[in-house]
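Lab meeting notes turned into a lecture example. A postdoc, R.K., suggested we walk through two folding results consecutively so the class can see how the record format repeats. The first protein's sequence and structure tokens come next.
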Amino acid sequence: MRVMVLVKADKQSEAGAMPSREMLEAMGQFNEKLIQAGVMLAGEGIMPSSKGARVRFQSGKKTVIDGPFAETKELVAGFWIWKVKNMDEAIEWLKKAPFEETEVEIRPVFEVEDFGDELTPEMREREERQRERAEELSKAGKR
């Protein structure tokens, strides 16, 4: 199963403060362990919400809301995508992360089979082609 691990923002990350050299080193070592174990598929830090935007879709209208966003506790400062056997394995890996004062959320990622019969064979085929194409373009540096 794949999971998304969401690292919550805090006042420091929202202010644009970069992690200390020690934290960067510790995270680099942790990421290396994840990679060596075949767990980490992707992972990135995210810039403060002041550099972002939200698009609200409501009653056919699309409204753009520029950051920053007020509720820090609802914001994300970084993420990983991990491939694990189950949620227990994800939790065990996360317990090894070098965090001190934060909250991190783990959520399963939907897999094609989770959609059942609603996702037709044609839709499944299209989904697979899109994933393959996106990976090819990413590797080729097209974006």
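The second example is placed directly after the first for contrast:
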Amino acid sequence: MKNYYLLIVSLITFNLTMAQTDFFPVYDGIFDGTVYAQTFTFPTGAQAWAGFANNNTSIYPLSYPNGGQVSFKATVAVDAEVYFRFEANPYPDVDPAIVTANVLLLASNPAETVYTVDIPADASNTYNSALMYVVTRDVEVSMLETKITQNASTASVDDLTANSVKMYPNPAKGVVNFTSASNADLDVAVYDLLGKEVLRANAVQSQLNISSLNPGMYFVNMTQGTTVSTKKLVVR
């Protein structure tokens, strides 16, 4: 019987380990005018498409049949936005490509706040180019411990961690619900596709009234302690 329980524990540990795959990019490849000097800067004068390329080629190929996330620690002196893009191959053979939502980095957040953003699911393609873009010009973005997570078909480890936040339903109409295993306050900010804040609520318990929002796509920033997660929300 003792061996039986040891087997069960081993299987559970194995399943949790296999529930995700983590990759660690190094975004120090500059192109078309960006500047990297331990911080990332998109200066005035750089091309509109200028960004930062991953130089850790050992992470390729990447695939997201069940979606994924990018997580990182960031510090900024001025509010800024970043996003991530995955392309089939380095330029010029970039298609198909997938792009994350913009992540809003707040100067008011503590240093090295943890941010996460979802990678959309794509069951058909693999990617051999990972890029990061700073949207806001002339702001130095300090970014550490960047991790790309590839979800597996089993329950996501993100769903099992103490600090995870679930948002549902999606699409939503009227209200959207939040659940978390943590007792920390949940602050929620909703942004439209232009990056304008359209709704904010602090210390959300379990539900947010979104009846004031017009139908469409929005980005939802959820802050709990020092962890910030950004997810897409479709309002019907």
